[in-house]
């Protein structure tokens, strides 16, 4: 059997809860045993709009955390920003509603074999998958520090329970409504050095990932980032979600961010060629 | 359980079921194989392949539209040699029936591609995607130019000899589809694939620029189904003996039946697989059941059934 | 409250707002007047009228399709004389601005119709619907034939003299829309209406025959919007000085803005009014607000804004 | 102001109740003062499918009855057969859901100025508007008899409370599962004669209306029928819903069944030309 998405299944899953958190919705979905197959960084593709819908494509959402406790029977948590038609529809679902999902999809964050200090950087709802990751890194003995940024405080997603696995958390908002005024990248160079971080993990807007890569490259630190490109299928069959990625031999090719991503090695992404013709 | 002969033929190629992937909507096949065994459908139509490696168009490459989507992939692909080395063996190993789709920028390129296919085993037919810009004629799409269309098919026919069936894939963006269809059939096409995507555009009202990196894109999905059904109906009326692979917005068994009744010998499913990875499997079983429910003993009896002459009734 | 110059012009005709009914989607105007005063929109484009009374096509005349519909009305109408006697006076009395749409089966019929309009007061412009079958040329649709298109517009231009602006309404079902557009502009059209419906078909899977009495029908509604935006964008790029009335699936202010950014000077709303009788009023106010939000001082500044040349940025 | 649909308004109206009755749903909608403007025979055009819906056209439904009592604040009752996408969506609405309606539309049944015996003939859900009509005719002193038909018993809509205004009710089913086996037209000629009916009112499939017209014409009895043609707009702007109707001068023209109907004079409809080119 092919290794692509080898654990992915299409299932109808019931919503366990849907709670507003700031501008986001925290949506918990019962996915049973599939929860055991989900790794931090994986995403889920959800059918939106219901019957008779004019929306024909699934929407991708990062899996924030999974719980495999026998009490809940396996759940995954999503952090959804109601924006356009599909995400608004999803945020309108209530407990018990069934949603059609394909999960788990895509690559996962690589976890170091040794407990090394790591820094997690999230922008907006991009912090979501970092909390699941933090728990695992923390459990493996890594020191985990986190930096979150957003345009304004209500766009910062930083749940109480998520902070348990984190050593320090620094917050930046562009309007200064929470934490420091500015962007996550403002003092990133110094922070990586101070923390002696061996790996930077990131998730957020593409411009942020690109800026982080510049810094991690200068410091020669590993940067694993979760990218976000428009995806029509989420399973590797349409070629819409591509990013220019440099191979071992230096040549750049267009890789699918749904199966060769969303977690990619930031230093291999040819950021200045994103959105340009090769 | 009632049974039915669900098989179909295109030229001398036989398929156990009339359901295929649409070119460019199943990548190399491996990705869908996670969701169902590829051999269970009629066949895999591979992504149109060109002579050399192609990076394709800049992103964003897609925009969702009402009941449809635009894509602007620009035929990204590994080139024919890598494709034959990597993808065909996998598909053959999976016991999938394979229709290889080829695309070129010159009449010559199509023939070159055909030549490479001659000695490859495990291929049931060749789909010639002529909805590509002709670099030798101001980028005018081959399928929009009756003469260039004919020359492409003629070149492929000569190169392939009489063995592999040739399916010419046409664009609906023409004034007179029937005359293009007639031209390529005269030039040696055994079958036709209808329809490729319809040229469209979305403008992002925030950036106030075209949404796609490539500006225009191809419209697919249920939105275009009435256009596709009309195309198949018109061409089947004019060329009733030419098998047609019908496609454009097929999302369930009813849609597939509509296309068969219009005159298609088989159906390709593209965009529906994006929304539902197992779409082809459910379309296949729904279609079979609907044919049985309507008393058909074989799929072939349903092909073009909407064209039957009205019985004279005296009320 | 921020204000904006919301007016638009087509040839020498001025309209206080860029929002119009689409021909054939507002009947005589009386029916919509129940829901809002007709003078509050840019103008009424009347149903295409022919010389004589026409019964139109057999029923069923419509089929709903994903995000769209097919219609096959066949230009049912009272004929030009009854139309001028009954409908125009009513519209004038309502203080509506009126664009009269005419349709013919021969080049001569269009000229005859134009002659009847010369002396009628209260008409702002004439829309010449050339998406009609030409009985003198095997029923080939005028708008699909560059030469016939030109001759129709030329005849109407000569008959009307220079006063009333002429808007040529084109079909998207052609290989080269830009060349048809160029031809009719050369022949004297002051503006273009884009797009008429796209030819489509639905087969009823129960009767297993075409659903419409007329077999094929015209596809309209949001499903075709990407095709319409592409058509307007392409034609505006080629003929930036020619005003375009953009239409095809506009259902809200965002859709209208998309069409304006693509290059339309005004928008016509058809199918959306079927689903929502007050659609034109809400589209109008949403569009105005979206233009204001984006800092436009006048509608005219937004026309074709998606074509602006990329500023060179050095990052 | 133009006389076409002069009372029609587009409003968001709450569903008061939705109850299954046989194969149908009885749906009651709060429409406030608009209820006073609705006459038997009028219909309502309803937006279906909800937000993001691929269904772009309204669906027409006959108004079965209205209540203008101050307790309910004005309601209308619909009898809906869940069949295709739109009607199924409507039948899935629950109490409190808002629906977008345009009401009242179309022509109404003409009520005789004198109390004369009348016969009401309904097929399937076509009986719906006849009950509201029966109440009015009965209140005006007419003797009201009713004949209902359907393919099978569950498709007969004949509510208890509806029968109060009716003198006799005869039921026909094609499969014999209720009432007599056969069709409403089987003994219609005799029944009209026996009842000395001065007017026949009907609503149901077009073939039934056509057959009734043959009989009423032979007996020279007035036949007011409510027709059902595919309607794209319901308000007279699209010309899809036409029927061939003979004018005073004998010439046949295509009239819109949404504004010149749905209630039409059966004898003026050119039934054998329905669905044909003129
Ligand atoms: C790998 C991945 C992970 C994601 N994780 C999250 C998450 O955890 N939380 C969250 O709220 N959103 C996430 N998104 C974005 C999400 O998939 C939707 O695109 C977003 O919710 C907007 O969809 P919409 O239907 O509301 O907007 P619409 O405007 O209706 O969307 C129209 C189309 O554009 C695409 N699109 C619009 N915005 C984006 C975007 N930002 N990125 C990619 N495609 C877009 C949509 O997928 C859809 O196909 C993720 C996207 C990807 C690719
Ligand atoms: C004047 C009038 C009164 C009606 N009254 C009732 C009523 O009281 N109860 C009831 O259940 N239905 C009634 N109908 C039929 C109703 O409007 C819907 O057409 C029917 O419910 C099927 O719609 P759908 O969305 O479920 O089917 P779909 O298959 O999704 O409909 C597709 C399209 O076809 C049209 N269509 C399908 N069936 C019919 C039909 N039988 N007649 C006309 N158009 C059709 C639909 O309106 C729609 O535009 C009436 C129709 C008209 C014109
Ligand atoms: C993302 C995408 C990629 C496509 N790539 C190709 C291609 O490489 N070659 C080709 O002939 N058609 C291609 N097509 C067109 C499809 O094969 C098909 O003709 C069209 O999408 C209509 O079918 P659908 O509505 O089922 O998708 C592509 C379509 C899509 C959506
Ligand atoms: C029912 C119907 C009737 C139409 N009649 C005409 C007509 O008489 N003349 C014409 O030029 N276009 C006619 N059209 C086309 C519309 O004017 C318009 O070009 C097309 O419907 C696309 O716009 P829309 O998607 O907003 O409806 C008709 C469209 C519909 C749906
Ligand atoms: S989203 Fe389709 S290939 Fe990645
Ligand atoms: S339904 Fe549109 S005119 Fe009657």
UniProtKB/TrEMBL annotation, chains A, D:
SUPFAM superfamilies reported in the protein's UniProt record: Ferredoxin reductase-like, C-terminal NADP-linked domain, Riboflavin synthase domain-like
InterPro entries to which the protein is assigned, alphabetical: Cyt_c3_hydrogenase_gsu (IPR012165), Dihydroorotate_DH_ele_sf (IPR037117), Dihydroorotate_DH_Fe-S-bd (IPR019480), FAD-bd_FR_type (IPR017927), FNR_nucleotide-bd (IPR039261), OxRdtase_FAD/NAD-bd (IPR001433), PyrK_electron_transfer (IPR050353), Riboflavin_synthase-like_b-brl (IPR017938)
Any Gene Ontology biological process: pyrimidine nucleotide biosynthetic process
PROSITE patterns (alphabetical): FAD_FR
Keywords recorded for this protein, A-Z: 2Fe-2S, Electron transport, FAD, Flavoprotein, Iron, Iron-sulfur, Metal-binding, Transport
Cofactor(s), by name: [2Fe-2S] cluster
Family: Belongs to the PyrK family.
Protein name per UniProt: Unannotated protein
Species, as recorded: freshwater metagenome
UniProtKB/TrEMBL annotation, chains B, C:
Subcellular location: Cytoplasm
Keyword terms: Cytoplasm, Flavoprotein, FMN, Oxidoreductase, Pyrimidine biosynthesis
This protein's pathway: Pyrimidine metabolism; UMP biosynthesis via de novo pathway
PANTHER family linked: DIHYDROOROTATE DEHYDROGENASE (FUMARATE) (PTHR48109:SF1), DIHYDROOROTATE DEHYDROGENASE (QUINONE), MITOCHONDRIAL-RELATED (PTHR48109)
HAMAP family hit by this protein: DHO_dh_type1 (MF_00224)
Entry similarity comment: Belongs to the dihydroorotate dehydrogenase family. Type 1 subfamily.
Full protein name: Unannotated protein
Organism, scientific name: freshwater metagenome
Lineage, opening ranks: unclassified sequences, metagenomes, ecological metagenomes
